[in-house]
Specification:
The chain contains five helices and 15 strands. The protein is α+β, with helices and mostly antiparallel strands and 329 residues long. It has two domains: 124 residues, Hotdog Thioesterase (Thiol Ester Dehydrase, Chain A), CATH 3.10.129.10; 146 residues, Hotdog Thioesterase (Thiol Ester Dehydrase, Chain A, Roll), CATH 3.10.129. The strands form three sheets. Strands 1, 2, 3, 5, 6, 7 and 10 form a seven-stranded antiparallel sheet that branches. A six-stranded antiparallel sheet has the order 4-9-15-12-11-8. A two-stranded antiparallel sheet has the order 13-14. A hairpin with a 2-residue loop joins β13 and β14. The longest helix is centred in the first third of the chain and has 20 residues. Bound molecules: Butyryl Coenzyme A. Butyryl Coenzyme A binds next to α1, β3, β7, α2 and α4.
């Protein structure tokens, strides 16, 4: 079988893709990354593929209006019904000719047939030394992502016991408080055909773009400006949503730090069945970290609500530590 199917779309960042500061919208970037990866996945599988998970994403550089975004994806390894696709994103400034890294993404896809059943993937062969390294690393990352939920739970429990983490890294405690609940955003989106793939499944990238939208509003309200997306923790797509579904996205600030803040987003889907609102299905959840805009000053400290709010604040502090530790591994 042909090794390393590639996809390398190139996009010009236009005014419809940027925010008020002419910086590429994080949600748009997530859509392009998912679609680019899906092209490689489907090329290997020969079947439509759905996104199962997206590993932690860290955005190294902002992309500006008029710059060129280069995306390059390849299948690193096929397992049984799932495969890992790596995407490398860089941006190119036309006037200087310089190219800067934007992010590396690892996305897992499962191939499905017309009845929605998982398909066994063809054998995957790699030839060059680089392909063999990607192949080996993909297996290590797979172990990490399969056990991700359990690992994070364990780390949070360990941090809970750590006396150091009882001092949660928040901003100065005597700053003006955020009015309770202003950081909460709930938005409902209707899944239309342009949001979905050929199966009618909502694109994973589209869901992530909607998530980034509500999260950026929560973040922006807290820091009173346009916050820029810095990272997205691993996202697992628990179940599908399809054309006609209503997608409910709820976001809330979990904790604020010196120059960044973490927002949690929960996504649910429902549809009308027999004249009634059907059951809400939990599609996925994610934690997004935003940087405070330059010149915005200090982030106001916010006091979490008792119990649940305090739990979320504490967990966000622990996740921040995990993220920072990982960057230095
Ligand atoms: C750009 C176009 C593509 C899209 O955006 S599609 C839209 C977004 N995605 C979706 O709607 C998918 C929603 N999820 C689903 O429908 C189901 O979870 C899905 C993918 C059918 C799998 O369902 P199940 O049968 O319950 O899954 P399973 O436990 O048998 O696992 C199937 C394969 O996935 C793997 N897997 C499970 N959890 C994972 C994780 N956290 N990260 C990475 N891989 C994971 C699992 O190991 C298995 O792979 P393999 O068969 O061992 O190769």
């Amino acid at each position: 079988y042909a090794p390393q199917p590639n996809s390398s779309p190139t996009q010009v960042v236009q005014s419809s893709h940027v925010n008020q500061h002419n910086i590429l919208d994080g949600g748009q970037l997530l859509k392009w990354v998912d679609t680019c990866a899906c092209l490689s996945a489907e090329r290997l599988a020969g079947y439509p593929c759905v996104t199962v998970s997206v590993d932690d994403l860290y955005f190294e550089n902002e992309v500006k209006l008029g710059e060129i975004l280069n995306l390059r994806s390849q299948v690193n390894r096929a397992f049984t019904t799932s495969m890992e696709v790596g995407v490398r994103v860089s941006c190119e400034c036309l006037s200087t000719g310089k190219s800067l890294p934007v992010c590396d993404a690892f996305i897992t896809f499962v191939a499905i047939d017309a009845s929605g059943a998982k398909v066994k993937l063809p054998p995957f062969k790699c030839e060059t030394a680089e392909e063999k390294t990607c192949f080996a690393l993909a297996n290590e990352r797979r172990k990490v992502r399969i056990s991700h939920a359990k690992t994070v739970k364990q780390l949070l429990a360990d941090y809970e016991l750590s006396p150091l983490l009882n001092v949660y890294p928040t901003n100065k405690p005597h700053q003006p408080l955020l009015t309770p609940l202003t950081d909460r955003v709930e938005s409902v989106e209707l899944v239309l055909p342009p949001h979905a793939n050929h199966h009618g499944n909502t694109f994973g990238g589209q869901i992530m773009a909607w998530m980034e939208n509500v999260a950026s509003i929560s973040a922006g309200r807290l820091c009173q400006g346009i916050a820029s997306l810095r990272s997205v923790d691993m996202v697992y797509f628990r179940g599908p949503s399809t054309v006609g579904d209503r997608i409910v996205l709820a976001s809330i600030v979990n904790n604020s730090f010196q120059t960044s803040l973490e927002v949690g987003v929960r996504v649910e889907a429902y549809r009308y069945e027999g004249g009634k609102i059907g059951t809400r299905r939990h599609i996925n959840s994610a934690f997004l970290t935003f940087d405070v805009p330059p010149g915005a000053g200090e982030i106001p400290h916010f006091i979490p609500e008792p119990q649940d709010g305090m739990r979320r604040q504490k967990e966000a502090a622990a996740r921040r530590k995990i993220r920072l530790d990982r960057r230095f591994i």
